[in-house]
Amino acid sequence: MKRSDFCYVSTASMIAAAALPARAAGLSLPATIASVKIPDSYAAQQAAIQAQDVEAPEIFRHSARSYVFAELISQARSVKHDPEIVYIAAMLHDIGLSKEFATPHQRFEIDGADRTKQVLIAAGHSPTDAQIGWDAVALHSIFSVARFKEPEVFLLSAGVLTDVGGAFLQNLDKTQVTQVLAALPRKGFNAAFLTALTDYARRKPDTVAGTFVEDIAAHTIPGYKRGDFYEALVAPDQF
Q1: What number is the average pLDDT over the span 115-121?
Q2: How many CB atoms lie within 10 A of CB 105?
Q3: What is the pLDDT of residue 27?
Q4: Region for residue 236 given its phi and psi (left: phi exceeds 0; alpha: psi -120 to 50; beta: otherwise)
Q5: 3-class DSSP state of 154
Q6: Residue 5: pLDDT band by 50, 70, 90 thresholds?
Q7: Mean pLDDT in the chain?
Q8: Strands 32-33 and 36-37, how do they pair?
Q9: CA dihedral sign, ordered 148, 149, 153, 155
Q10: What confidence score (pLDDT) does residue 179 get?
């Protein structure tokens, strides 16, 4: 066996060992969407399979659209970056909402970030690149911070926010946006995302304070009380 073959098999084994049993059937993602090439390395495929195995189809398509939008934003702004890091982070950024990849008391972004780092390290990326992937997932919902980080971190957050709320649509070609939505239909996403977030908030209410998921908790968990930092400051000291 050649050394390159051994390295590939070793990498494949490491990634597979960290994965849930995956479907044998291939993914349905096209090779390109709106001129954006979909990464097809073993690590990229495993990240997509892991997400597809535990997510509703509507959320999986959201992850894929987030990647394509991130790449289109990079083209529009001439942002140099590593597409594989962005793709793996995009595929795994919501995986922490699932029961299968959830820890008891970490925010879902951290659970997804941890999985992303594992996949990148197993695929042979440097610790620095793996940390960038971790940051991208951990900060994907906090664009006010992500925009000042590495290009991959900025792009994932921008792509996610574009798909969820149209944040960067003004920077994108309308024809390409239409092509993205034709290849990865958005129908049903809002309802599926709300269902996933509601389930997550009910399972892990201690993780949502101060996040966008707290809005979901306030509407769906009977008796849930939002934290109030003003009240904490004017209350008697605990010391």
Answers
A1: 98
A2: 9
A3: 55
A4: beta
A5: helix
A6: very low
A7: 90
A8: antiparallel
A9: positive
A10: 98
Those residues whose C-beta lies under 8 Å from the C-beta of residue 195, and which sit 6 or more positions away, are 56
* Banded pLDDT at 22 (limits 50, 70, 90): very low
pLDDT at 96 over 50: yes
Q: By the 8 A CB rule, do 98 and 55 touch?
A: yes
What pLDDT does 164 receive?
98
The type of residue at 67 is Y
Q: pTM to 2 decimals?
A: 0.89
Residues 6+ apart with CB under 8 A from 116: 47, 88, 89, 92, 93, 130, 133, 134, 136, 137
Kindly compute the dihedral angle of the four CA atoms of residues 230, 231, 233, 235, in this order, to the nearest 10 degrees: 160
Per DSSP (E only), the strands in the chain are 32-33, 36-37
Q: b/e map of 120-144 (b: 16 or more CB within 10 Å)? A: bbbbebeeebbbbbbbbbbbbbebe
